Amino acid sequence: MAHTKETKENVISLVKTRLYTLKEIEAETGVRKTTIIKWVRDVDDSLVKSKRCSFSQRERNAVIQDYLAGDKVYDICRKHDIVVSTFYNWRKEYVLDLIGDGMAIVEVAISMRLPLSKVRQWSQAFFKDTISFDDEQSS
């Protein structure tokens, strides 16, 4: 299907706003997602993240802050264009950072809306790896 120049410009401007997901733009305009990606990459490759891109610590923190504000995981992932498993990995890293910084496990569990048993499990595995790593270096 041939698209007009106006449609192409409209689609690119929607992507540039970063207010809509590619799926939403596809539904609104009728332009296939693969076509949208091709058009946008022709203009500015940084506007469309590839599936294997890295995120800055600032972007990761924004995701976690949305979670701490009470947003639902699905909505957060959709907003930041990440997969759910990535969100859960980042959440776990954040939890371990809090524990490593000396925050009590109970406080972490409450603030992160997680079962205490899960936080304990993560922290035990984290400290076990840390201790065995330190022991290997001192040998």
Structural description of this entry:
- With 139 residues, this protein is an all-alpha fold.
- The protein folds into 2 domains: 5-47; 57-138, no CATH class.
- The protein has 8 helices and no strands.
- It has helices at 5-17, 22-29, 33-43, 57-68, 73-80, 84-100, 105-111, 116-138.
- Helix 4 (57-68) runs antiparallel to helix 5 (73-80), helix 6 crosses helix 8 (116-138) and helix 7 (105-111) crosses helix 8.
- The longest helix has 23 residues, at 116-138.
- The protein is elongated, with a radius of gyration of 20 Å.
- The termini are far apart.
Tell me roughly what share of residues is in helical segments. over 70%
- Helical segment tally? 8
Percent in strands: under 5%
Name the quaternary structure. Answer: single chain
Total separate domains: 2
Question: Average pLDDT value?
Answer: 83
Distance separating the two termini: 67 Å
Rounded to the nearest angstrom, the radius of gyration is: 20 Å
Q: In one word, what is the shape?
A: elongated
Largest sheet: none
Task: Name the poorly predicted regions.
Answer: none
What structural category characterises the helix and strand content? mainly alpha
N-to-C SSE string, H for helix and E for strand = HHHHHHHH
Per DSSP E runs of 2 or more residues, the count of β-strands stands at 0
Feature tags:
8 helices; mainly alpha; 2 domains
